[in-house]
Design brief:
A hairpin with a 5-residue loop joins strand 4 and strand 5 (129-142). This protein has a single domain (31-157), classed as Nuclear Transport Factor 2, Chain: A. The longest helix is centred in the first third of the chain and has 23 residues, at 2-24. It is elongated. Strands 2-1-6-5-4-3 form a six-stranded mixed β-sheet. The termini are far apart. By secondary structure, it is an alpha+beta fold. The chain is 34% helix and 35% strand.
Length: 166
């Protein structure tokens, strides 16, 4: 009999303690994915209002972000992104508009992406405005302070550049 009691009492105490610990553990925080999707869309829309202000544009990027612009080299980090944005934003006739068409967020609510369309206008070598349309994908990460920041952004054009495009 002693062997059952010596095993049963500690086992029942361990099970009881485990149940108490599990019962007292804080519940997992519920993520409102719809609210996070909305927040990512809002961040993208706010970001679209920054051009031609290079400093404000770059402020939406996280440290170490990747910028993969069409017809240009990869830029990693805010300093390199700023160099490319400065060149583009100071181009004669520069105009850029974009808007997200959709967003999604991870089940953890800390990573999301937007997809959208844009229109970019710059002057050609003869001073004629050339407008190109395209699409983009931006990856966003929620920061410790709750803000959504760009960790990767890429875009490309809907068609190749032509001399008569515009």
């Amino acid at each position: 009999m002693r062997s059952y009691v010596s095993v049963l009492v500690p086992l029942s105490m361990a099970i009881t303690l485990a149940l108490i610990i599990v019962g007292c553990a804080p519940e997992s925080e519920q993520i409102d994915l719809e609210a996070e999707r909305s927040a990512v869309l809002d961040a993208d829309r706010a970001w679209s209002e920054t051009p031609p202000d290079v400093e404000r544009f770059v402020s939406f990027f996280a440290e170490g972000a990747h910028f993969l612009p069409a017809d240009a080299p990869l830029a990693i980090g805010k300093d390199n992104i700023e160099k490319i944005a400065s060149q583009l934003f100071t181009s004669p006739g520069f105009s850029l508009t974009w808007g997200p068409t959709m967003a999604d967020v991870s089940s953890a609510g800390d990573l999301g992406y937007t997809v959208g369309t844009f229109e970019l206008t710059v002057d050609d070598s003869e001073g004629n405005a050339v407008t190109r349309k395209g699409k983009y994908t931006t990856v966003w990460r929620k920061q410790a302070d709750g803000q959504w920041k760009v960790v990767a952004d890429t875009f490309n054009f809907d068609s190749p550049a032509t001399e008569k495009e515009g």
